[in-house]
Amino acid sequence: SHSLSDISVLCSYVHLQKLELPHNKIQLSCVSHMPYLVVLDASYNEISNFFEFQPPKNLKEVNFSHNRMTKMRDLSAYASLTKLVLDNSFSEISGLEQCCRLTHLSLAHNKISRISGLGGLPLTHICLKIEGLEHLKSLQVLDLSQNRITSLSGLENLHLLGSLNLEKNLQVSEIQECKHIHDLLLLRDLSLVENPVQEQPDYKLAVIFLLQHLTVLDQEAVTVEEKVSSVNMYDPPMDVVAARDHITHLVYQLMQPQVLYETLPSADSPYPMLVLTGPRGCGKRELTHRLCQEFNEYFAYISHTTRGPYFGEENGLDYHFVSEEAFQSMIHTGKFIQTIQYGGHSYGLTRDAVEDVAREGLACCVHMELEGVFSLKKTYFEPRYILLIPTQAEKYIGHLKARGLYTQAQMDAAVSRIELYANTNRQRPGFFDNVIPDWEDAYKTLRQAVKEYLLLEEQEEGENNNRASPDNTSTELASIRRREQLVREAIVGKSPGVYSQLFKSDDSRASSALSVPSSAGAFSDLAADQLAAAVSPCSDRRPGSNVKPILPPIPTGR
Prior knowledge:
alpha/beta; Leucine-rich repeat, LRR (right-handed beta-alpha superhelix); Rossmann fold; 4 domains; elongated
């Protein structure tokens, strides 16, 4: 690089094999006197004539990049060429048909509109590099077909691009390359015909999912059904996930021998269940245990998981901890009512666990993530759902850190899900029966809600009234005992719906009275029921003669 313009002195160097003179202002007439030349680098000069010298018989490598050449000529006399660099000079490539040894060809930074005569060459490397596309802000149509493009990087800023043709590139093999054009919201037409990426599983749905604004893919119109299917496959709504989960377990259950369950649905008295839900670390597990300890005559706790126990957790008490293989086996044998995947682990509620609790005359109390709630709502169970949602993010994060159980990524994911729970509550009125936002008084509020569900306050008031009114007649006492007996029998599944007896209309009472022979007979039945209740043995965990009512009936339409 000495701004040389005259190199005629080199004409006497007839045995020269390598000549490198970049960044000068030379002409190459002297090369005609170098028959043994092998390598020639004349890049960044002002050469206007293309190969205007006698061809050295062994010339293999030539670099003519960044000169003033505009037109190529026939190079059949240069049969030894193996590498040719012609960057930033030409608009049309021709004359290379007889270069039978050419393996490396670089045509970067050109304005090439046509390439011909390369079909019979042994090319292994070709560079058609186009840089600077990111600066073409007004570009709307881009045709890069029949190249060897491997990446779509560099197209991110072409926000007006509406059509992109990448046909027959043979190098675009990864669907993730579409992430580079994900934010081009005006892109409507994309063609990846005859690219290896088309061999990827579910290629079309994957591309449509990444580029939801496409209307034409591979010269075919994108349908609404394909867009919906792509979302359902790669980012399904919770309703879809829940429906798939429910269908899976229902099919596997139907493949097993059928039995009668203690928790079969009833029109007026569904099996009582209580479900606590909320983001990870919100305290739902601890609150569930406290409820089951305080209200141990009403609730029992059950659930399965494939994750390992945290410090202090016990198998069979906090969870039933099982391996992933055992969990999958339980799915395939129809054991589960619902399952979810969260944090890389599986969680589920089994039919047998619910039945074991029901046989003891207890209600089921569980906690789960929001996905589990959606799945459980697909079953015939009608639990009461209580949402525990942190309202102070900083305090919630501090609580997660204090527990020392979660990584930073897990804590970030948990915090991000707060809005998911809040949106579900806002967008689906009545989806949750109670929402408890107060962290400090969560159990106090939960306890009060449970007492209202169990009608414990009404019973306590009734007992106080009974003590204050010792003059109750024998008929009134018999009626009270009759109601208590019906409640106890209903929770263990030994009588028709208790609520059909407690909440009958006047007409139904009148019609049922017609079937009673006399009032004396009715009173004798009440006395017999009272005596049977007095002598019937009770389990230690089952409500006794002073049994509390179970959850009130679910309103119609839930």
